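Lecture 7 notes: from sequence to structure.

We start with a single chain of 301 residues. Read the sequence below before looking at the structure.
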Amino acid sequence: MKIAILSRNPRLYSTRRLVEAGEARGHEMVVLDTLHCYMNINSREPSMHYQGNALHGFDAVIPRIGASITFYGTAVLRQFEMLGVYPLNESVAISRSRDKLRSMQLLSRKGIGMPITGFAHSPDDIPDLIQMVGGAPLVIKLLEGTQGIGVVLAETRKAAESVIEAFMGLKANIMVQEFIKEAGGADIRCFVVGDRVVAAMKRQAAEGEFRSNLHRGGTAKLVKISPEERSTAVRAARTMGLNVAGVDILRSNHGPVVMEVNSSPGIQGIEEATGIDVASKIMMFIEKTARTHNTRTRGQG
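Now the structure, written as tokens:
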């Protein structure tokens, strides 16, 4: 097969590993800088162009779209979908998972475990908003934040009120969530491919830090997950419509709760912590499922 990878940087570990895994299985792998793709949108012969040439003959596309270019990246992916190219993750599913509020509402609708989450606009609502999620300590999140940026732990009610007022003063969209203290600064990253968790690692926050992101100094190791955690991760990915996802779970006193569903999960951390060849498992999934126009939305919406 001829497979495109949408990635800003061909030297990134995840991009390199996907290229290696694909070529090892006999596929032609082409890395395309997402922002350098451009589209001819018309009703007769829509096309995708790159470096002065129209792109032809792709069987599948693997989107590695960073959060900062979600709008343009999903537009590029939609164009590939319109051309009948099979997307590993669909544009609609990526947009859905990137909207933190929408994704939480979808998880809630499906009855999937999640922290109590509050969302409000008016500063008049702050005291009741704090009470609604169980009071302090609580976590305050910018809707647009990634990799732990824009996430604040407010230890006291006064601190929570001050931080919320500050964010609202900047016209920022925020969520407040209950703080799962019993998780002890650790979360579980479940790497879902299709309807299976193919690898899982436990990420532990650095001393004095509550965010377990590896970018913030957290450490990772192989972990054995329970059937309930496995089921929760798969259901969360399916709810977003993602074929490949990194589902972040906290172990709470009332069972596993989903913190986030990531549509472009990094491969390096999970492969190094578990020793599992995740990139090859992704390629095997594409081989099994890639068909022309094999998308739920067919480029619509």
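The mean pLDDT is 89. Keep this in mind for problem set 3.
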